[in-house]
Amino acid sequence: MEITSTLFAAKAIYIGLIFAITLGVAAYSTYGERIVAAWMQDRVGPDRAGPFGIFQPLADAVKMFMKEDFIPANSSKWLFIAWPCLSMLTALLTSAVVPFGDKLDLGGGIEMDLQGIDVNIGILWVFGIVSLGVYGILVGGWASNNKYSLLGAIRAASQNISYELAMGLSIIAILMMTGSLSTKVIVETQQNGAGFLSWNIWSQPIGFVIFIVCAFAECNRTPFDLPECETELIGGYHTEYSSMKLGFYLFSEYINMFVSGAVMATLYFGGYDYPFNEVVEAQFGQNIAALVGVGALMGKALFFVFVFMWVRWTLPRFRYDQLMNLGWTGLIPISMFNVVWTGLSILIPTTFNLPAWASIVVSWSGIGVLLIGLIIYHGATSKKKTVALAH
Amino acid sequence: MIQLVFIAFALLSVVSALVVLLTNNVLYAAFSLLVTFLGMAGLYVIVGADFLGVAQILVYIGGILVLLIFGVMLTNQKGTKSQGRNDILTENTNRVIGLVVAAGMFGLLYFVFSKGHFAEVQASLFTDTPLKATTQTIGLQLMTDFVLPFEVSGVLLMAALLGAAYLSTKQK
Amino acid sequence: MQQLPDVIRQIPLNNYVWFSAALFCIGIIGVLTRRNAIIIFMSIELMLNAVNLLLAAFSSYKADPAGQVFVFFIMAVAAAEVAVGLAIIVMIYRNIQSIDVGILNKLKW
Which residue, among A252, A70, A231, has the nearest Cα to A148 in the 3D structure? Predict the structure, then answer.
């Protein structure tokens, strides 16, 4: 592909726009969080700054900037200042490979992908950056020179590492179905076929549940927000942080939420695909169809952001041993089962010459097999426990 | 252009590796090792091995270095906490012997490599075939030609996991 | 835009060789002079990385993926090595409250 100056300028504008949109969505997620919380708890919520309180994020930002920027005397100053910024950086880097839309026709035969960069290792890039994000918390907690911060940081790091395993295994099932690591190709394979019926969610129900649970844990959101558990650790890893450095940590959490929503939409809900997009493309042309696609992806991502908030105000926090138990003895075996079962669901239709919907039937029957297996396993272990108690 | 990028990444890696070598603070050493690994990942991408670049980030930065930092924090010597700071300090010994051995090693490598004529080899011998997407070829190679080493490395990792878990459980 | 391999080959292979040699020697000095067992580990990782990069460079200049597969195996072995090694170091720390290799001379005689 020839890189012309038009394409370069368009790409630069696009990247700037994505940057601005991500930050704007993150800022308004704080407002959304309060509105959702108020709605859940039957309160009014923020309504003072502007109509319906929509200037609340600006007021919050002003408050954050105006507060005293405190650096503890015995902390390592450089690390203390540098790592909130790194936390922010890693949160923003992930959106580079998320395909926000289809090709845009710029005129003169130049077409631009609405995606930062289409690399053939796309989804691995997301994983690499997520694993870098651990350092932002780990080092920030250590640099504060406070034992609560350190405990929170170690919790965060071990939690992220544990849940990354199950997340990776649930992605492997997707990769088996598409045969490519590129996020663009993953979306395109979901696009052909019968509208939204070819989205990956229909053939990967178990994988999606594992992925969304792991996404909660990776973003340190309730019910997995052990690193900042107030009742045990004061403020967790950001106890010593104040002013905009604290703001960066909180902000990066909201950016992570938005980006992980976009990644979930890309992997399981067809990305920028929407029903009847061929009709729209034939009726209104390529550009309108692509822009509607961007809107569809944004809608899906924002819906997941809402789910994050919904869960936060519904479920209480886990205990730390419950968290580790769920990760290591619950999600990882289930995701391994999912990988094996996905292999079966690909193999059975090809060997017995069944139509394509057979693979979907096989993958949903996996849920039944899993439930039966879990019930048998639970019965066996609980019987053993009662026997042990009786003696 | 590409040379400048190469030099930038190489300098980043070497300078932060020197920090690992010279600093007294163990955690600074760990963080500069992080920078070294990132620079190496960039060099992998420049050399055309994009899958290895990401594997470097996933394995070394996401796994090994986090484990090392955990190790540092778990083996935090109480004696080095001076004036309420939480620096973990250490020191260098045998600087002269180390330098001499390393200089000897570098001299040997220099001697061998200067006999190697890589420039000529590169020009004549190595074929100019187009480089394909590396992920797919690596996957195919792993599942066909190298399937036995692949399985053996799986067994090795399992054994290492069990061994580490056994070693770190408290004996009764 | 040029083909990617041509861009790659603008850098002479010698550069990679010298860079890897330098990094390897830094690793050697680290292993010989540092007294903290974990920093010795880090130096070993540096040496492994230097070798890995050289393997990857040769493999892609020759357009032969076998070298990259080999790097993949080295990474697996390095991960196993760190897991066991750190468990041993933590056990040593529990027993003698230090990981200074100068003190660990019981096996010397």
Answer: A231
Q: What is the span of the domain harbouring residue A80?
A: 5-390
A19-76 pLDDT, tens digit each: 888 888 888 888 888 888 888 888 887 888 778 878 888 888 888 888 887 777 777 7
- Give dist(CA B43, CA B49) in Å, integer: 9
Cα-based distances in Å from B138 to A13, B133, B145, C10: 36, 9, 10, 24
Chain C residue with Cα closest to A1: C1
pLDDT tens, residue by residue, A96-149: 888 887 777 776 667 777 777 777 788 888 888 888 888 888 888 877 777 788
- Assigned CATH for C4-96: 1.10.287.3510
Residue of chain B with shortest Cα separation from A146 = B86
Q: Does the domain formed by B2-131 have CATH 1.10.3720.10?
A: no
User: What ipTM score was computed for the predicted complex, to two decimals?
Assistant: 0.86
Q: pTM of this prediction? A: 0.85
Identity at C50, one-letter amino acid code = A
Which chain C residues are closer than 8 Å to B156 by Cβ? Answer: 76-77, 80
Per-domain boundaries in chain B? 2-131, 132-172
For an interface test with A, give the residue of B57, B78, B131, B134 to mutate (most A CBs within 10 A).
B57
